[in-house]
Amino acid sequence: MRRGAYLAAAQRAQRTIEQYDGAPSEQEALEIMIDCYRRLGLKDLQANVEKVYQANYHEASAQGMKRRSWWHIL
To answer: Assuming Cys at both sites, which of 16, 20, 57, 74 could form a disulfide with 29, CB separation 3.0 to 4.6 Å?
Structure first.
């Protein structure tokens, strides 16, 4: 996403969710998709992913989406 390739990043995040259902990185992939769709101005897709995020991670959405990545070492 640092290069501005938001569509590619959103597609990679979507494939991650599809291929690794239930993995710890699923929440982060949804966050990436929300951010990418917001930056691309795709409001309908952003709203759909936000609904999925809130349905599955409602405790995290109440605190905001910013959190440490699952792969960061303490």
So the answer is: 16
